Amino acid sequence: MVKLVNSLSRLEEAKIVVIGDLLLDKYTIGKARRISPEAPVAVVHVSKETFLPGGAGNTALNLKSLGANVVLVGRLGKDEAGDLLRKSLQEEGIDTQWTLIQHSYPTPVKNRIIAENQQIVRIDHEQLMPLSEPLEQYIIDFLPLIMQDVKIVALSDYDKGFLTATLLNGIFQYANLHGITVITDPKGNDFSKYKGTTIIKPNQSEAYAAAKLPFNSPLDLVAQRILEKTQAKLLVITRSEEGISLFRASGERQDFPTDAKEVKDVTGAGDTVLAMLAHALANNLDYDEAAELCNAAAGIAIEHLGCARITLTDLAHRLLEKDMDHKIFDHEHLFVLKEVLKLKTYNVLVLHELPFLKPSLFLVLKQLTNLDSTLLVYLTDPEPCQTSLEMLASLKEVGFILTHSDHAENTFQQLTPKKTYYFINEELSFVS
Questions:
Q1: Do the Cβ atoms of 401 and 328 come closer than 8 Å?
Q2: 107 and 249 in a common domain
Q3: Residue ranges making up the domain that contains 355
Q4: Does residue 114 sit in the same domain as residue 213?
Q5: Would residue 220 show up in a list of annotated catalytic residues for this protein?
């Protein structure tokens, strides 16, 4: 947990370019209470409809939620769906100046019909069409401007025709020439077109199809064939509820089992992994650190119905859940504590010294526990008794403990608890 907490705390804003197919995801939500008299199908009484960016747009949204500065390159049709998609992206603060219009192209729309939290059917409106040559050349010509001050490019291929062989080749050539890492989320069974990518990230079924091997073949053999075909430095295979497997070109393999509580829907989980991987590597995390964070993010994503946007707060909560006994936070772990407290109602108890636990303190802790809020204990003593500290952490009444440091003091001043209590000379007082 400590290693991942440190990794998470190192994530800062980074400029990342996302290039790929843009889709509009529509969710038609209602209740199915009867069967149609016309056919043996459910009748869904619609209660609401929502529209969200899908495809590369979902990757961009996840990156934005993680704190990245996102530049999006894609294609829209000159239609209502395209207008809605662009507006939705702009409202999220995503740079859409490179989302180009192809007049003869209809913006793809995926309409998911959902009743009683179950997806009944998906209706796709799309027309597969290659990117027009003028737009293709336009993007290639402007790659120096698009990729200015960028360390990571994320390619999101949904096989709608935007990422043509010519465009891919132009991206790979420019990126390799300027030391820019390219992470590719592929589609189809011909991965030779991705030769030149730094990292390739298929799901397990895509990997077997691309390797042209039966599903009972060893995954290591699948990985070997894909790495040979793409010449990538790293292969990341997402395996749904089985987690993530990472293969280096050197032959080394690492497996990261998922920690999802319940698999509800894998929709968009690949986009989440692509976003997390791009953001982690843009912040100079190692491959294994990045993969572990990807696994945690994917575990959260597949617990939700439809595409989920994962935040640093979500990740902080998940990392803390993996180590429920971890209550003591020093200055190195303040990031996770601050993120966790964002979603909690809590009170603060300030203790100036902790030589040993007195009965009066036990009574105070019991009293504060009855307030139905998490209790954060802040110790201002720079060198508290270690035995007393461990005993305090073992109490169920105590949610978190923050030990003193200059950084911790700054954090304490920024906290917004319901109430702050002070325990001085065995008496309790509070500041509202």
A1: yes
A2: yes
A3: 328-431
A4: yes
A5: no
